[in-house]
Structures
1.
Amino acid sequence: MNLIAKATIQIQKPIEEVFEGIVNPEKMTNYFISESSGRMETGKELIWKFPEFPVEVPIKNIQIEINHSISYVWDPKTVVKIILEEQPDKSTVIKVTEDGKTYNEANLKWAIGNTEGWANFLACMKAYLEYGIQLRKGAFDFMREN
């Protein structure tokens, strides 16, 4: 049995704006990462940095369907998939899944933590895209190594 971390939210913005908010590092650095080595594009490999962790995260196997889906690998045992669904009112539902880890105690903790993380990612994206608010700024300073 594989574990799946997942989260879903609706953003009151057109699908094109939501898609651009995910693939464009100039947008994503306002709610998720602190730095990216480039724009998300099919076949490209990137390095992401996060404000609260002193690590560089390689982003591999990027697959893009414009205004529909984004997938990538940042943990060799999982695949992140982001699906965008346009709604009749021109808002967008975003569904994030990350799966691939088999069931055991450590991976169960991973699934709970990553589900929480993806819910936070979506809430921060919604706040930024809809209202220009940066919810993530300072939210995880307590996690930094001293």
Note: The radius of gyration is 15 Å.
2.
Amino acid sequence: MLVGSLPAALMTDDAPDRYTVEAVFTRRPERDEVAGILGSETREFLANAGYPTVEVTISDRRLEIANTNLEELRGGLARVLADRLAEISAVVRAREDASELRFRDAAASETIRTAAVVALAESVTFSTSGDIDPGVGSGQEARATSDRVQIDGWTDEGGHGTSPRP
């Protein structure tokens, strides 16, 4: 609580009945937390708890509680606000945790998919029939040798490894 922001006339005959009290957050609230605090659900929550005139705003790391007083805060409003803030933070955390879990699941699925693609790609071989194990007994050994000779001939015919002429 920022005592310096309280009205100077407190505990005198001139003290206002209601005023704004500033409380300091332990950390800067996240954007979704700010939206929850400033949203209509918080106004309804306060009204249902018996504080229909209390309004809250946020300024940097401060919760500004308007239309209240220290006695009302001590009498239960502080606990009501703390409960609401804890509820908002829990909802935001749960949403962030669920999002992080979805991200991790998607990343794991992508890793598995990528590994499967790599394994499939690595299983593809470009070999001639002559590269087949002769022990297979396929009867294609002669053709494989002929194919190898033809491939070697293409490699040796002019132009392989040379620049084309304009």
Note: The helical segments are 31-38, 40-48, 70-123, 141-156.
3.
Amino acid sequence: MLSDRTTALLSSIATYLLLGFVSFLSVFPFLWMAIGATNTSIDVINGKSTFGSALMTNITGFFTQVDVPLVFWNTAKIAIVSTILTLAISSLAGYGFEMFRSRVRERIYQFMLLTLFIPFAALMIPLFIIMGRAGLINTHIAVMLPVIASAFMIFYFRQSTKAFPSELRDAAKVDGLKEWQIFLFIYVPVMRSTYAAAFIIVFMLSWNNYLWPLIVLQSNDTKTITLVISSLASAYYPDYGVVLVGTVIATLPTLLVFFLMQKQFVQGMLGSVK
């Protein structure tokens, strides 16, 4: 029979081995992408797994083929505006669903959650027709409008609002604050971790959005970084070194946002579970 100390030690070793293996699986795609960015297209095709000497050549090729400032401006504008509008609308809706009582509130909320089961593929044609009739095809507004009212983010904010102290709202009402003042000056500062977590989620989804921009953005001067990299990869003779350099560059903003806000992200996700 093993002693309790030996059993605990073996359990810890197994846990760390499992976590190390899962961490490696998570990091490996980015590591392979970074290694491929330093190699030639032939080396990438041959599966070379060591760093090469073609990094500057690939970077030069990417900046030569792509109008990087314009593409990044398009992507950043869509991602930031979409994120801000989504957070504003979703937090207001989540706050309203939790704070205001009515007979039909739960029915409306449940109906809204049912929309999560509708695949986006079923919505593409109706959305395209609506955007076409509104004259928004080939505009960034057409990319942003379908995502700013997110049923998932409304659900997330409502769950987080359950942890918001109702005493604060009651005390604010006694002090004479109106509902919009309670939301803006009390709710938003208290729930800042929830906003930070939601910002990371929505920003990453908006930055990496591919299918809907592919449908509605038709000219080169409106395209985002995901569309540009896709077009490079689907060329008749794709330069995979250049493609991987573009992929690394496109990944950096989302990594930066996550690492800058990871503490608030964890706090916000824990708050939503409570």
Note: The longest helix spans residues 240-273.
4.
Amino acid sequence: MSVEIGRFHDLHEAELAAALLRSAGIRAEVADHHLIGIDPLMQRAVGGLRVMAPPDQAADARAILARVQAGEFVSDEPDDLPAAGDAPARDAGLALGVLAAPWAAAGMLGARRSVSPRRRYAPLAILLLVAVLVGLPLLLRIMA
């Protein structure tokens, strides 16, 4: 039998809390996470996600989560995420994804040999249009 340690409104937050507790040696589980994974709208119906732990470890688990809420584990180190001005890698990834989209769309639409040449080359026309619309601003940004 387990007791409730805390309630969370987000599956990821509940899983992170349970993982933190497990790393401290507490046998924590997220209750109803399979139900929420199947139908996220059920999250409100069941009152959020409950993190559960054995009764003999409940006090320690609540103490750890209280320390998290107090901000004890917050670091002064900056995030390793790129700053807002460091966007070339993101832009290049976006451009590659957008440039690949016409072929993916053509595959989903069933572009086969039996289709007219005009329809077969439609993804190429879309690719050229996207290359101009995405590539030109990237090129101008690089040259500036």
Note: The two ends are 64 Å apart (CA to CA).
